[in-house]
Amino acid sequence: MNKKRKTFVSLLLSTMLALSVLAGCGKSNNTEATATPSASPSETTPAAATEKASAEASSLEGKVVFWSMWSNTEPQSKVIDEAVADFKAANPKVDVEVKYNGRDINKLIKPALESGQQIDIFEQDPGAALANLKDHVLKLDDLLAQQSVGSDGKTVKDSILPSLMDWVKSLSVTAGLDEGYYAIPQQPYAVLFFYNKALFEKAGITAVPASWEEFLADCELLKKSGVEPITFDDAYRDLFIGGYLGSAMGSDWTDKLVKDKTGDMWKDPMVLQFAKDIQNLKDKDYFSKKIAGNKYPAGQQDLALGKVAMYLNGTWLPNEISATAGPDFKWGSFQFPIIPNGNDKGGQQGLTFGAQGLLLNKNSKNVPAAFELVKYLVGKKAQEGMAKQAVAIPATVDTEWPAPLAEAAVAFNNAKVNMPWGFGIDNGADFSTGTVIPVFMELATGKIGPDEYVAKMAAEAKKFYAGK
Amino acid sequence: MRMQKSIIALFLLPAVIIYLVIFLYPTLRTLAMSFYDIPSLSSKVAEWKFVGLLNYEDLMHSSYFTGSVKNVLGIWAIGGVLIFAFAFLFAVILTSGVRGKNFWRSLIFLPNTVSAVVLSVVWLQYIFNSSYGLLTTVFNRLGLTALANIQWTDNEHIYFSMIIAFSFGSIGYFMLILNAGIDRIPTDYYEAATLEGASVGTKFFKITLPLLRDVFRTTLVLWTITAFNFFVWSATFGLDDPHTVTPAFYMYQKVFGRGNSVYVEEVFNVGSGASVGILITIAILVVSALINRFFPKDRLEY
Question: What domain of life does the native source organism fall in (chain A) (predicted)?
Fold first, then answer.
């Protein structure tokens, strides 16, 4: 009897132990993943404190949690740390916790918000955030009327590039929210051809190509000067297809093309023209010989090393490969050249552009302090920091753009229509990844000719959508 | 002293509870999820939309998915032959009394201690790279320019490149199991055979292989599970290239999104991912059953 009881008690104890160990695991994981900014506030205290000594700000208190989309190894995090330090100097009673999620935030944010975890500010692509998280976002219209930090006399709203603010506002209606501002845009980006200016000069090219004809002529000059004109990586093959077709016909057309269930749209003359032009690029050796096997980031490294002249990518590219390219690399950029015989829906009025956004949680218990921190994050000093340290386009109106992206301003001025990523060529989901891109590679490596390409795409599209 | 049944049950209880909670419940929930259209992993049950077998039908009709099934069967067959050929070879050599046995064994096992992601980056960017990769450099040195110019990671080669790279890292693991199995075989048999004048080949086919049947069956089941869940290498080698995609990676794409770029908005269907998971589970069960059928279970005593 006694023995039995003993076994029972020990069993109970061991079960409890096991449970507590399991519970312990869960907890420790959470705290481990949370990183508080390491920048010590003492460095910046004196300057910032005198700058901002208003009684209203310093009365803020409580805790603010900010989930960032950057990881703590990226230069953006250093700028954020500095901005947080400035904020803390001005608002010593507020406890700030920054969690650098990296791009995993895209997967973590929704469950975290739904489970009611304390997140006051989070970073997301505004389009994706408003579509997926519309029950969690706070309307910012009233808050945006507050004075900005650093841009004298301007409200927060007026301190930020108007085209970006308009774009963010337009997203609210599509998402089914009341019209207004739900995200503060920052880190604007666009998809452009990036080129090595030194190689262009060596080849004798004086102006960037605007039309397809000029583009081909420049490729010829580059080839003669001994460099490979164009390259791309496996991760960005879609951009090249979408870039051409979207530039010719606009992204609504490419969207319809990849979703066409009959496959007949692939018989459009524009597809044949595209296939012929790609074959031309391949036959004349304008494509790098390595495009077939390039594994990200092999192709962009070739650009950085001066082996290849052009690469179609987002404006984050100069920052991404700055370590290989070095500080003396002269960057230039231009929009996808104008394609002849288009339908006027494309051209240079269409640009794949966007921005990251700072959003506030609707259920935040500390909106005043959270928004105050946001003001520092999109303040002039932080945006200058982003431009200098992370080669990012600043969101504030009169901040100088980083030199590698100076030419990108042209494209932002041209842009009237915002095109989706890949100009819509990725909208076919499994059809895009499973068929559009690999068959394009067969064309670009000379395995099939233009007529075969058209026939194959039409047949494959019909086959793919047959059961749906 | 025999313990009472109730005490045995009591001792088993925690294990059973943990098994039910962390294994059976998720499996059943996944099965249920596979019949719904679910926009996000964290969607509430109220947001699920019942679609019956539609997820499964869509999978059958998607050439991307059926291609991924073919890929994984190829990996299972080709990779299996490669891995077991080398694993047997090394295991036999190591147990034949070679000098420095422990050193060689550790060396062959070493790739297993490196993360699969790291290994695949090494293979992709330093071995298969067409400008300064190992293969290109070596073939150029040897004057074999035709071989040096092969793009190991293009559409034609990437599948086999991936299988070779993966097999390289997996040989050590299976070698270790086979090695232990061979070590268990009493040396008397070999001594007797040697005295009778048997060759190395005869000893392998007449003694080692038959007596290793149990171990081999187990490793084969382990390999099947590994191969059918082939995931990391597919993700790192192909991104979402149809030439390298496997059902497990396809499932990941459906549940967590495609996202090789932050800037793409995704359409999720967690339910579709769940049906892929169910199909993988069924496939593993079926193949394991077949393996047990072909390798009878009578235990060898020696």
Answer: Bacteria
